[in-house]
């Protein structure tokens, strides 16, 4: 079903479809290291809460959206535990994402994770990591598997050379593999997140067949993400043109299916979304375009007037009311030639 973005935003502003909006804003004010969103699923409101536990990272991915340049420790554990309690009571059923920086660099991460898993009001917990510290010191994170818990491991290259390029690091690829294997072997659910950029675009097809051998069994789910608009604007040169990205995704999809690799893809990321006129042929033009703009770090309504642009041809498109067009930084780089108004 197609929904209209403007009316959706008005509904949200009026609070009609977003009864927890004020509670989420209150949580963000009390705990500035939290970002809380309405991440509706099947038209049901569901709060998604991101906890930034540290801004320190051991890698330097040039397309990083977290922009972690700080060397300061994150909030004290007592403050994180208080926040966890509040999330559970104020937003029952919440999905919580623990991110950074690199969360596993915190010695007290296991205590926070145990508390989050024990709280009834928290339905799901995702830990975003590069798994390097786990590979180097597996004892840092000895947690039993839990039905609420999954790990999302950043794995932007399947060979050491590409991995180094994408993470701005050296000597970490084997540790990341070993940390990921450690999680899998201990029964955790693991998803590999691979951000597609010009740094790995040409290598993914070559590397994908080796993936099962890198991890053995059970193998992780593989998730490809569109690169978002980075904080460092010079990194926009790493953006991939959608008309190169979508056929590649289609080929990767076929290769993965043939090799029994479970693959997912997200067509939106931090203030970036593939417009519906470009989505894969099998994706419906009747896609609910709101979902394209529902990425975890995207704030509908915020900056959309100057962030998104359309071309004159968009006025002839039947989706013009439900589509935001292209991020202007993307359009500056690639123009509007790719867009084909839908009739
Ligand atoms: S032609 Fe323009 S309005 Fe239509 S889907 Fe593409 S970007 Fe959106």
Structural overview:
The strands form 3 sheets. Strands 1-2-3-4-5-6-7-8 form an 8-stranded mixed sheet. It has a two-stranded antiparallel sheet with strand order 9-10. A two-stranded antiparallel ribbon has the order 11-12. The protein has about 350 residues and is an alpha/beta fold. Strand 9 and strand 10 form a beta hairpin. It contains 13 helices and 12 strands. The longest helix is centred in the last third of the chain and has 17 residues, at about 240-260. The chain has one domain (about 5-300): Alpha-Beta Barrel (TIM Barrel). Bound molecules: iron/sulfur cluster (SF4). Iron/sulfur cluster binds near residues 276, 319 and 320.
Q: What is the CATH class designation?
A: Alpha Beta
Strand order of the largest sheet: 1-2-3-4-5-6-7-8
The SSE order reads HHEEHEHEHEHHEHHEHEEEHHEEH
**Radius of gyration based on Cα positions:** 20 Å
Helical segment count: 13
Approximately how much beta-strand content do the residues carry? 15-25%
Short description:
The protein has 13 helices and 12 strands. By secondary structure, the chain is an alpha/beta fold.
